[in-house]
Amino acid sequence: NLMRLYWIPPGLKPTDGAYVCYPLHELAAVVALESRRARCMVIGEDLGTVAPEVRAVMAERMLLSYRLFYFERDAEGDFVPPAAYPRDALVAVSTHDLPTLAGFWTHEDIETRRRTGIIPDDATYHQQMEARRRDKQKMLEVLFSLNLLPPAYPRNAADTPELTGELHNAIVGFLAMAPSQMLLINQEDLTKEVHQQNVPGTTWQYPNWGRKMGYTLEQLRSHPPAR
User: Fold this and answer.
1) What proportion of the chain, given as a percentage, has pLDDT over 70?
2) Which strand (E) or helix (H) includes residue 80?
3) What is the tens place of the pLDDT at every residue in 47-95?
4) Residues with Cβ within 8 Å of residue 63, at least 6 apart in sequence
């Protein structure tokens, strides 16, 4: 949070809070200096509600942007092609706060939000399910447009109830085509886990940061199915 942070005074509601501004340019300069001293890359989490000034300063200081497959859309909601991704960025499908790829495709994140009470009513639930069906279809369309799926693969997202190997590889291939400097594949997506690590807005309702992976690190190196 180099630009601002939302502060809520003790005992008041979230709507009573306010943004406290930080010296963005000076802090970004310090981060850039420390990255040179430590000989490391710095990736900024410019996700969600981000002021344009933040990305401008990141570009000036050569701090890598963080671009997610789920979020990179045009004004119509279509997925932008890999060539539209910036060079100075890390690209990934998801984060720990978002659905895994397998969970996205099977709507597990929506079902989880319904079970934990984050989705307040049936109308909202059905709206989110319908939006997800549209997103999955748009996802297929951009993958087919780049010839990343076999010609015989089902063109209707409803005909693919789970994340298949072909679809999984196509999405990773999509991100690998981007000109961005770094590509990250979460372990959850590497092994097609359905449940995400953290569900924002929950505490006791969901085992945040406590879910075990399907494979141990040792199995990832040697276990034939994991390999």
Assistant:
1) 100
2) none
3) 888 888 999 999 999 999 999 999 999 999 999 999 999 999 999 999 9
4) 28, 31, 32, 35, 42, 43, 44, 57, 88
| pTM: predicted TM-score of the whole model, two decimal places | 0.89
- For tokens 């961005």, the residue is 180
- What does the alpha-carbon distance between residue 66 and residue 41 come to, in Å, rounded to a whole number? 12
Residues 103, 192: contact at Cβ < 8 Å?
Answer: no
Cα–chain center distance at 199: 13
Alpha-carbon span 222 to 132, nearest angstrom: 36
Quote the radius of gyration of the chain (alpha carbons, Å): 20
Q: Closest Cα to residue 70, out of 61, 78, 59?
A: 78
Copy the structure tokens of residue 158.
Answer: 């409803």
Closest CA to 46 of 8, 20, 72, 15: 72
Report residue 222 as tokens: 């040697």
Please, are residues 28 and 61 in contact by the beta-carbon 8 Å criterion? Answer: yes
86, two tokens: 């910036």
